[in-house]
Amino acid sequence: MSLWTSVNERLPQDGQRVLCHLPENRVFLPGKTGDAEVRNVVVLRFAEDFFLKNPSRTGHQGSPHFWLGEGTRNHFFHEVDHWMPLPEAP
Fold first, then answer.
1. DSSP string of 25-61?
2. For the chain, give me the number of helices (H) and strands (E)?
3. Which residues contact 51 (CB under 8 A, 6 or more apart)?
4. So what's the pLDDT on residue 37?
5. Dihedral sign of CA atoms 13, 27, 87, 21 in order
6. Distance of alpha carbon 63 from alpha carbon 76, whole angstroms
């Protein structure tokens, strides 16, 4: 049984920190070389109805939900396809 949950099946609680799977999430590496790597799993905080509470200044017309990054960039809702709760600390 997979621990991953599809965003089409169920969403995390508003404000919950979770592991997210982002297919083809390209992250630029430090320095000015332009080198990048794919990091498919990152920790994000789910923001339910983010764009209803904070209207987009850019005219964003997608989902009202958003993913807030912690030390990484934020992501639009459609960029994440699966999520899972963070494991308990040892």
1. -EEEPSSSS--EEE--EEEEEEETTHHHHS--SS---
2. 1, 8
3. 60, 62, 63, 64, 65, 66
4. 87
5. positive
6. 8
As a whole number of angstroms, the distance between CA 80 and CA 66 comes to 10
Residue written as token pair 């993913």: 67
- For the segment 29-41, what is each residue's pLDDT rounded down to a tens digit? 888 788 888 989 9
pTM above 0.85, yes or no: no
What gap in Å lies between CA 3 and CA 18, rounded to an integer?
A: 12
Rg of the chain over all Cα atoms, to the nearest angstrom? 14
